[in-house]
Design goal:
- By secondary structure, this protein is an alpha/beta fold.
- The chain has one domain: 2-Layer Sandwich (Chloramphenicol Acetyltransferase), CATH 3.30.559.10.
- It is 40% helix and 21% strand.
- The protein contains 8 helices and 8 strands.
- The chain has helices spanning 10-22, 37-45, 52-66, 117-129, 136-145, 149-161, 163-170, 220-242, and strands spanning 27-35, 72-75, 81-84, 89-98, 101-110, 173-175, 194-198, 206-214.
- Strands 1-8-7-6-4-5 form a 6-stranded mixed beta sheet, with helices on both faces. Strands 2-3 form a two-stranded antiparallel sheet.
- Strand 7 and strand 8 (206-214) form a beta hairpin.
- Helix 2 (37-45) runs parallel beside helix 8 (220-242), helix 3 (52-66) packs across helix 4 and helix 3 (52-66) crosses helix 8 (220-242).
- The radius of gyration is 19 Å and the shape is globular.
- 38% of the residues are buried.
Length: 258
């Protein structure tokens, strides 16, 4: 059957490079159902509702501050070793329209644990709505995608394996979400040390958390504990931040359920 030749667009080149290096990362995946009813109540009572993306992103960043392996990366230069950062750099997977094509871009957010939810929400809004060429991360990604493939892959490899620079280029963890479409990521693979996603949130606050992680950096027990810590942080620190002033402190979260 005769078809037609379609060259890779710049967004497809970006995704192809990402997948190339994700395939080289030995990924483990854990899933866990948690309950965030206290956070849901605090959000419902707030005069201005922060996006769920911002709440989960900051919650995971706070957990990463408590669990050092989530701030580590595996690098190969000058020899294989782990490199630990004092703070996280989040990479947000953002879908945008680029010249009539659905495209994925990465927006980096330095030390989100130290930012307010309002600041995080503003950065997410900018990444989703500002002109693509006005967003530095998107502009640089498109410029990089124009380079020949061999040069792109060589620069990617260097960026992935120089500890001091890797977080500046790629971040320390990723967040991707499809829950707005009623679906969830089933088996996340990525070149990051961890990639966190969550599914649709039920009326009683149950939500499925999925984390893919680099098995060279940590084992599943670390991620399991991080998931329990995420439930606690969302229902305590994050719920307290968005609760109206003078409101009662959120109730203690129920024990995490596997």
């Amino acid at each position: 059957m005769r078809g037609r030749f379609i060259p890779l667009s710049l967004p497809r080149r970006i995704v192809a490079d990402h997948c190339y290096f994700a395939r080289k990362t030995p990924t483990g995946v854990l899933r866990r159902r948690i309950n965030i009813a206290p956070l849901m109540k605090a959000r419902a009572d707030a005069s201005k509702k922060a996006p769920w993306f911002a709440l989960f992103l900051k919650g995971y960043a706070l957990v990463a501050q408590q669990h050092a392996p989530l701030r580590r990366v595996y690098v190969k230069l000058p020899w294989p070793h782990l490199y630990e950062y004092p703070a996280s750099v989040a990479s947000l997977v953002i879908e945008r329209d680029y010249k009539g094509e659905d495209a994925l871009f990465l927006a980096r957010l330095k030390n989100p644990a130290a930012l307010s939810l309002g600041e995080i929400a503003a950065k997410i809004t900018e990444a989703k709505g500002a002109p693509i060429e006005s967003v530095k991360d998107f502009r640089l990604a498109l410029r990089f995608a124009r380079a020949p493939m061999l040069l792109r892959r060589a620069l990617w490899w260097l960026g992935m394996n120089i500890g001091r620079q890797r977080a500046n280029f790629f971040g320390t963890f990723g967040v991707t979400v499809l829950s707005g479409d009623g679906t969830e990521v089933n088996f996340p693979i990525s070149p990051w040390t961890s990639l966190m996603s969550y599914g649709p949130i039920s009326a009683d606050g149950d939500v499925e958390i999925v984390i893919g992680f680099d098995h060279r950096v940590m084992d599943g027990a670390v991620i399991s504990r991080a998931m329990g810590a995420l439930e606690t942080v969302l229902n305590s620190a994050i719920a307290t931040e968005i609760a109206p002033r003078g409101a009662e402190a959120p109730a203690s979260p129920a024990p995490a359920r596997p």
